[in-house]
From TrEMBL:
Membrane keyword on record: yes
SMART domains reported for this sequence: AAA (SM00382)
Superkingdom of origin organism: Bacteria
A GO term for molecular function: ATPase-coupled lipid transmembrane transporter activity
InterPro entries named among the record's database cross-references: AAA+_ATPase (IPR003593), ABC1_TM_dom (IPR011527), ABC1_TM_sf (IPR036640), ABC_transporter-like_ATP-bd (IPR003439), P-loop_NTPase (IPR027417), Type_1_exporter (IPR039421)
Record keywords: ATP-binding, Membrane, Nucleotide-binding, Transmembrane, Transmembrane helix
Residues in ABC transmembrane type-1 domain copies: 19-300
Gene source species: Marinitoga hydrogenitolerans (strain DSM 16785 / JCM 12826 / AT1271)
Membrane topology: Multi-pass membrane protein
Protein name, entry field: ATP-binding cassette, subfamily B
Membrane spanning stretches: 12-33, 53-75, 124-141, 147-170, 246-265
Domain ABC transporter: 331-542
Amino acid sequence: MKKILDFREKKNLIKIIKLIIFSFIGISLYYILPLFTKYLIDDIISTNSIKELKIWLFLGSGFSVFLHLYIFYFLKYQWDKIPLYFSVKLKKIILEKIFKIKKYNYKDFDKGQLLNYLISDSGTYANVMITYLGTLTIGILRVITGYIILFIINPILSLISAIFIPLYVFSMGINKKKLEQYSKLERIKADEFITNANKNIEGKIHINLYQKEKYFEKIFEKKLEEWRNIRLKYSYWYNFGKEVPMFVNTLSSFIIMSIGAYYVISQKMTLGSLIMFSQYLSMLFEPLSQITQAIVEKQSNKGILNRINNFYNYNEEKKLVLENGNKDNIIEIKDCTIYTENKEKLLEIEDFIINKSNGLYIIKGKNGSGKTTILNLLTQIASPEIIKKNKKNSTFYFSKEFIESCSYLYNPVYLFEGDVKTNIIFNNTEDPQYLKEIISMLNINNLDKKINFQNLNISLGEKQKIHLARVLYFSKDKNILLLDEPLSNLDYKTKENIKDYLGKLKEEKIILVVSHENLFDDIANKIYNIIDNKILEERKEVIE
C-alpha cells in the first residue's frame, strides 16, 4: 500500500532531516546545564568564591537567553510549522482525490467521513507521523548520547540505569490491541456523529416547521452517546499506555538515586556529581518516555492512519463500459432496463435514440418514474450498474462527443462563496456580451450581490436563475444542453423568455429537457412520455 505522504521523497525528507538536526542541536545544549550545576556545587560553593559566582551567574544567564531563544524557534515553532506544512499538503491531496472519484461512485462514500478526512484526520495524520519519525530518531540519538555521558560519570550507576530500558520497551506493547480496536471504533462513531450533526444543522428550518425537535434531539443524543462511550474506552487505554512508562521512570529514579546517595555517603562520589548524574539520568529517561508516548500515539491513531492511506489507495472498481452504437446517434439505448440502487425495476427502455441533429427533446413522466435518472446515467452521475441488458443485442451507448460536449442543469442548486456574477461565470473566461444576453433574458440585475451563507439572502427563484445562467453560460462552446426541471420557482415572464431563448438555441444545439410543464411542447422536436415504467415516443398528452 502506498502511503499518502512519502517521507522518502526528496522534498519531504529534507524538511524532516532539517527538523531532526536542529532539534538535536537544541537538545544537546541542555547537556551543558548539569555542568553548570556541578561546577557551582563542587567548585564555587566549596571555595566560597563570590567572584567566580558572579562570573557563573553572568555566563549562566547569557547561556539561558541563547538556549531558550534557540529552543523557542527550532524546537517549539518549527515543530508546529512542519506538521502544519504537511497537514496543508495532505488536505490538498485529499481534496484532489475526492474530485477524481468518478461521479457514479461518489454516492458510495459517507460525506461526513470525507469531511473528517479533509478537516480533522489530515491534521492528525501529519502530527502523528512527524512526531513519530522525529521523536523516534531524536530520542534514539538522545538515549545514546545520554548513556555515554552517564557511563563517563559513573559506570556502575549507568549499568543499573540500563536495566530499566527493557521495561520501557515492554510497556510500549501492553495495550496495543486495545488501542487499535478502540481507535478504529472511535473514528467510525465520530463519522456517524458528524454526519448526523450536519444533517440537523442543514435541516433545522424543516425540523422547526414540523415541530420535530425532540425526535431529532433523541437521534442526536443516541449518536452522541455511542461516540462518548467508545471515546471513554479509548481514553482509558490511551492514558494507561502513557502512564506505565512514567511509573518505570519514577521507580527507577528512586532506586538509582538511593544507590548514588550511598556512594556520596561513602565518599565514592561528590554531591555535585550525583546531582549532575540525576540531571543526565532524567535526560536519558525523558527521551525513552517520549519514544514510548510517540509509539502509543501512533498505535492509538492507527485507525486514522490506515483509513487515510486506504482512501488514498482507493481505486475505481465500477468502470463505465459503453456499447458500440450507431455513430450517427448521440444517444442510443435499446432493450435495457434501469433499476434503482435498491435493485427495484424503475424503467424499461425499448428504443430511445437521439441522433446528432440539433433540436429540442422533452422527457415527461410522474415523479420517481426515472426521468432524472436517464440524465444522470448519461452524465455518469448514476452508476452504469443500474442498467441491465434484456437481450444479447441490447445497447447502452452515448458518444464520447456527448461526454465532452455536455452542459447539465443538475439539481440541487450549488452556490459557493462570492457574488452572483462569480457564481454564474464559475471561473470560466468572461464573455461580457454573452453574459449580458443571458442575464437580460433571465432578468438578473444584481450581479454584484454577495451571497451570504450564514443567512441566505436570495430566494429560490434567484437561486434557479443563477443556476440556469451558469449552465447556459457554460454551454456556449458545448453542443449538448441537458435541463432538469429548468422552470422550477420561476415567474411566468422568465419562463416565456426561456422558451423563446431555447426555441432559437435548438437550431444550434441538442437540448434534452426533463419537465412537468407543457410550455415547451409546441417547440419540441420530440416528446417522450414515461407511462407504466416504459418510455414512449411521440405521445403528446401530459402525464402528471
